[in-house]
Structure of Stage II sporulation protein Q:
Amino acid sequence: MREEEKKRSSQNSSFKRFFKKRWAFPAIYIASAAIILTAVLWYQNSSSTDNTSDFDYEATDVPGKNINEPAIEVNRQMENFVMPVKDADSVEIARHFYDSNGNSEEQEAALVFYNNRYHPNTGIDITSKNGETFDVVASLSGTVTKVENDDLLGNVIEIEHDKGIVTQYQSVTEMNVEVGDQVKQGDVLAKAGESALDEEAGLHVHFEIRKDGVPVNPHDYFQKPLSALQEDSSANDAKAADEDEAVEDDEPAEDPSKEDEKPADEEEDKTEDDTKQDTTESTDA
């Protein structure tokens, strides 16, 4: 019994001596905080592991999952229309776009003579200064929508850049693209060739920019973004709508008095006819 009491008393005295030390309580607090923090981190990790089944790792939003898929062109709206040639300094414009607002000299120079008739040029004809063929490139990034041979225009390539906005490359040869191809600005499409429509131009490329099937002057949009053509088209549509409304407002309203006069005239004619008929009947009698 005495030995047990001695052991107990010695243990109690040891605990008391431990708690009397200055670092005892801070050490206990730090150890407790470490234990609590470890428990919290363990709980969070276990929860995130359990939730992995909530995510579809076959989806396209996983970083690096679809790294081999083709990227979507997002800079097309920021590109500017450029001359459809590799080196703009090595070429010249043989025939300009026919501008209905231009002077008579400019309009005459923009006419194409074919089959004994003059036709307005709907684009620009580009030739090399040395008279040789040259690479024809995409003026703007887009999707190839037409690759065909035309007896009159020669080979034709059409690229769509936005809804209703296309560029055409006519009189070309050695075409490198097919319908459905995605091309970037500056990609080589073909080489300059010839056409039956404009034999006088020789080796050249006939370049057009069209909006909803209507050709526009390429000079007005070189070094300008696609949005410039979109804005101009919207402005032109609004202007045309305003002009139509103005014409409707200027039309004179019908004079109701004229409508009233018409029945009176008809009644007068009817009276004269009845008088003539009565006179004829009395003469016969």
The two ends are 173 Å apart (CA to CA). The longest helix spans residues 256-284. Residues 55-72, 279-285 have pLDDT under 50 and may be disordered. Helices lie at 2-20, 24-50, 104-109, 226-250, 256-284.
